[in-house]
Amino acid sequence: MKEEKILVGGLKINYKIDGEGENFLILHGWGGSSDSWLKVQEILAKKGYKVICPDLPGFGKSKTPPRPWSVDDYTEWLNGFLISQDFENFFLLAHSFGGRIAIRFAKKYPERIKKLILCDSAGIKQEPTLSTKIFFWLAKIGNALFSPRILKRFKDKVRNLFYIFLRHRDYVKANEIMRETIKKVIDEDLLIDLPEIESRTLIVWGQRDRIVPVKYAYIFKENIANSTLEILPRFGHSPHLEAPEKLAEIILSFLKSQN
Predict the structure, then answer these.
(1) I need a labelling partner for 128 at 20 to 30 A (CA). Which of 86, 105, 136, 256 fits?
(2) CATH 3.40.50.1820 spans which residues of the chain?
(3) 204-243, pLDDT tens digit by residue?
(4) Is 156 exposed, middle or buried (0-12, 13-18, 19+ CB in 10 A)?
(5) What whole-number distance in Å separates Cα of residue 112 and Cα of residue 189?
(6) Residue 57 pLDDT level (bands cut at 50, 70, 90)
(7) Matching CATH number, 2-125+189-256, of 3.30.70.1450, 3.100.10.20, 3.40.50.300, 3.40.50.1820
(8) Which residues have CB under 8 Å from 128's CB, separation 6+?
């Protein structure tokens, strides 16, 4: 396993590379990094694949973009990264937020992907939960409540407490650019992109996923024509951390299967 850095689009990018053989790319989720996928990467590398896992811009040891990015911005960055690595045709595995990038990339560059694996993928705009409705209601109330100059200095601290209480910790941890990035990517619904995916696709989902509930796995399956769905009964949103060996076994079986 090697860890290297490269300049892509003016951003210094950190990535891990392991193995020799067919090209395989892993895209991590929001708040994750290449470290999140070390075990799965090692297993795949031992099975005859050259596996690259970058820290996406704004995560891990990679630099933050100079402005808030959209899904398209990440997609075009990914294309530049792949060109730098001479990754012409490859297998693509993407988790959660990384799934958004993979979906858009598969739509724009279908000829590049041998097979696609989406693991507990984001991308479909979810119906707002009660906590999300409270989140936005409190945001409006908070802006009005703390508008007087004397109270403004308390605004960020109180707001962060509400975010933590409502489990919007990703927002709290992010810097200002990445906070705006969160808003941009979540606001985009990629459901209309799914029918345009031509690659043979494996959809893997934890039955107990509370971040992207399993009902969305069936929507992915319904809208991606050449797709297979695998539900993992005992696992949640991060099978790569909960059961990396089991996830790698499912992925390897899919890679070796015929159409």
Answers:
(1) 105
(2) 2-125+189-256
(3) 999 999 999 999 999 999 999 999 999 999 999 999 999 9
(4) exposed
(5) 23
(6) very high
(7) 3.40.50.1820
(8) 136
The predicted model scores a pTM of 0.85
Q: What does the DSSP assignment read for the chain? A: -EEEEEEETTEEEEEEEE-SSEEEEEE--TT--GGGGHHHHHHHHTTTEEEEEE--TTSTTSPPPSS---HHHHHHHHHHHHHHTT--SEEEEEETHHHHHHHHHHHH-GGGEEEEEEES---SPPPPPHHHHHHHHHHHHHHHHT-SGGGHHHHHHHHHHHHHHTT-HHHHHS-HHHHHHHHHHHT---GGGGGG--SEEEEEEETT-SSS-THHHHHHHHHSTTEEEEEETT--S-HHHH-HHHHHHHHHHHHH---
